[in-house]
Amino acid sequence: DSLSGFLFLILLSRWTQKRLQRRFLKPEEISEGLKQAHFGMAWLSGELKPKHFFQNAVIPAGARLASGEAVLKISKLLPETGFGELLEKVQKFSLSKNRVVSLADKWAQWLLATVFALAVIFLIAYWNISSEDAIKRSLALIILACPCAMAFGTPLAMASALRRSKSKGLVVRTANIFESVTKVKTIVFDKTGTLTDTELSLIEPAKFIPLEIKQIVLTLENVSVHPIAFAFRKAFSDASPLPVATAVSERPGRGVSGYINGKYYELKKSITHNSVTGCELFENGRSIFDFTFDAAIKPEAAETILKLRSQGYNLLLVSGDNAASVERLGFSLGFKRTEIFSEMSPEQKGQLIRDINNSMMVGDGINDSVALMNATVGVAASGGMESALRSSDVFLADSGLKGVADLLEISKDSFALIKQNLTISLLYNCAGAALALAGYINPFVAALLMPVSSGFILLSTYLRGKK
Q1: Alpha carbon distance 77, 24 (integer Å)
Q2: For residue 250, which of 223, 277, 274 has the smallest C-alpha distance?
Q3: pLDDT in tens, 403-426
């Protein structure tokens, strides 16, 4: 009965673990009734610009609807897709070679050995007093003091942490990282693509810019793939219809130019802005409008930074951008000058992280790969998921930075749960052993009580997992 109960609970916990980790995005396709939609491919390739899909096009699993509407139907099961294969690899690796789980298994083995040794010693010592009682009490001890709860309490806590991570938009490469996260003292943030969006945004409110200026700019930038052109198209989406332009020319690094209604217009990079990106619109050689751009601060970035500081973490800001731009952003988020590092190459970032003990690096999964690998914990806030997980431990599926605070909280909670489960198991086994050897519990009652400790572990994990 004890063995059957043990196997049942172990298999149940493993099945629950797989169920908690399995659900994710499903492969789908655009169906009848809708002509087109835009899907973001950032999770798959790191490409920021959404791709245009027409009716009946196959949408890869992992794509996210960026604009428009789409009616989708499943054409493949998740394990049959490239995205599903990636998730399966992550899931298989998530609890493999886990130091904490292995340690808990060793503790369970030591407990089992201790219980058997104690039972044999009691059997020998009590045999002359009452051989029948010696057998009954020793057998009750072996049955009741089962290491079942200790054996599966830790992996169950890890599975719960993985489930909570997924619900918060965190893709965790291995559950080992939860232990490393609890040791983090310093968190280093990259600027572009981490604290800010990778795409530029127009600083001037579009509603205060004359419609004619918007139309001229969009006409010149109509076919450009420069980040500034994307920023203009995003800000001036209401500027149609556009006038006709002739002799349009784009010079890389300098700007675009062309004739509109007989006038010569130029949109050139501005040299008057040190801390932001700028450009000027010229009409027949005369400047008529000035634009400034910057990457918008990500949602919840300021709130996350403030929360982490209040929890006692040391925060640093590193970037390859110019000092003025990085300091302006850093000061707005509460960083001190001594906490800001600008104009750093990827190699310099990696060296900085290497010299910091118990560090977490939050950066781009591709550009900051060296720093992510050198950190105690590497968190990729952008880039394709597959490439990001090669150099980092965690991938933030959501665009904001709240996932960093969530990761720290989940890690602390998971180890608190492990300690709680181990405490419950040890106290139960100690109390049960004492009662069994004292003769208050016979083997039949011990068989009935043996699963109770496992029930306490399940209840403990469930209550903490509801957060």
Answers
A1: 11
A2: 223
A3: 999 999 999 998 888 888 888 888
